[in-house]
Design goal:
Blueprint: H1 3-25, H2 28-49, H3 51-58, E1 77-81, E2 90-94, E3 97-101, H4 109-118, E4 124-128, H5 134-137, H6 140-146, E5 149-154, H7 166-177, E6 181-184, E7 197-203, E8 219-224, E9 227-231, H8 237-245, E10 254-256, H9 268-274, E11 278-281, H10 294-303, E12 306-309, H11 310-313, E13 315-320, E14 325-331, E15 335-338
Parallel strand pairs: 3-4, 4-5, 5-6, 9-10, 10-11, 11-12
Antiparallel strand pairs: 1-2, 1-13, 2-3, 7-8, 8-9, 13-14, 14-15
Helix pairs in contact: 4-6, 6-7
Bound molecules: zinc ion.
Length: 340
């Protein structure tokens, strides 16, 4: 024992002897009471100290919603974040399966069709209109008229919030004319997924009543093997908060930042829970809203994730075999090029 240690020990012994002396001065009944109280205080202190560990041990071992699914050997999932100006358009492809999420602004229609053509996509298993704003369904009419669609998913807004815009009406007319099966998308919607993949719809809920149309956005977590993508449409802080409150595992390798990198989305709490390795922002270089906002960029920089932006990097392609992933840029002319 070191000199210091022996001195400490002697000190403790002295204190213990003092305590014993004090205790022995008390009447016998009182002595028992004080001893019991002392033990209770010690146990309480130990519980307090080890509370986090105890809580952890008592928490049932709930597996994440998307249990890692076995992916077909060597099959890769491709997720394209198209460079389509001030809007969103995302293509997911796994083998023969294809899903298009949003169709940006109307002027992006030709670019979207060209991209699909270059990728050899001549039909779509699923199309999701995250919410009925013109920067998400702008070119939907054109897509519906030119590419056969198996199932079209969209949120149903309360009557008072149902859009009356020409863009929306044209989309509905085109769906009708092409005889496309239309389904309401809610957190209960089961979207059939290809082998190795899972689609989880985290929002909206049936009967939601939000102030902002953005908050009706379909929020989809797409998982391929062990790699997940959080695709949030334009959902803002209230939706992110509700998703957090469910306590679901929402960790993802890739986050498409909500609402084009606006500070009204991608709250620090949500970002911490998603904990992405890659953040994608889909917006135009020059836009009326100042997207992406400084606060969002700050949060992403603080997290230290890789930040990719369509206005700067062009179309972004994330490839994954379900275990690893790579971030690339892509264009019709050059194909995929690993991002620096
Ligand atoms: Zn938008």
């Amino acid at each position: 024992m070191s000199k210091k240690g022996s001195r400490n020990y002697a000190q403790y012994q002295k204190q213990a002897e003092q305590a014993q002396r004090l205790l022995s001065k008390l009447p016998p009944k009182m002595r028992i009471v004080v001893t019991i109280l002392g033990v209770i205080v010690l146990i309480a202190a130990a519980i307090w100290y080890y509370l986090p560990e105890i809580e952890y041990l008592l928490t049932p071992d709930v597996p994440p919603i998307a249990d890692p699914v076995q992916t077909p050997d060597g099959e890769e999932a491709e997720v394209y974040f198209f460079d389509v100006g001030q809007g969103d358009s995302i293509l997911i492809r796994v083998g023969e399966y294809t899903m298009l999420i949003d169709a940006s602004i109307s002027s992006a229609g030709d670019a979207i069709l060209q991209n699909l053509d270059a990728l050899g996509v001549d039909d779509l298993d699923a199309v999701v209109a995250t919410h009925p704003h013109a920067d998400h369904i702008g070119a939907m009419e054109k897509v519906i008229e030119n590419v056969p669609i198996e199932t079209f998913y969209m949120p149903v807004l309360p009557a008072s919030d149902t859009p009356t815009t020409r863009t929306y009406e044209n989309m509905l007319d085109a769906l009708d004319a092409q005889n496309v099966a239309v389904k309401q998308i809610t957190d209960e919607t089961q979207i059939p997924a290809p082998e190795g993949a899972v689609f989880e719809v985290l929002s909206p809920y049936d009967g939601d009543n939000w102030e902002e149309t953005n908050d009706y956005s379909a929020v989809i977590r797409f998982t391929y093997g062990n790699v997940s993508f959080m695709l949030t449409g334009d959902a803002e802080a209230p939706v992110e908060e509700r998703i957090l409150e469910t306590g679901a595992d929402i960790s993802c390798t890739v986050l498409k930042c909500g609402h084009h990198g606006s500070s009204s989305s991608t709250t620090p709490e949500f970002l911490r829970a998603v904990d992405p390795k890659v953040a994608i922002i889909s917006c135009a270089e020059v836009n009326d809203y100042g997207h992406p906002h400084r606060e969002t960029m700050q949060s992403l920089n603080d997290l230290g994730c890789q930040i990719m932006q369509t206005w700067r990097d062009g179309t972004i392609l994330v490839l994954t075999n379900g275990t690893g992933y790579s971030v690339n840029t892509w264009s019709v002319g050059a194909g995929a090029i690993p991002a620096a």
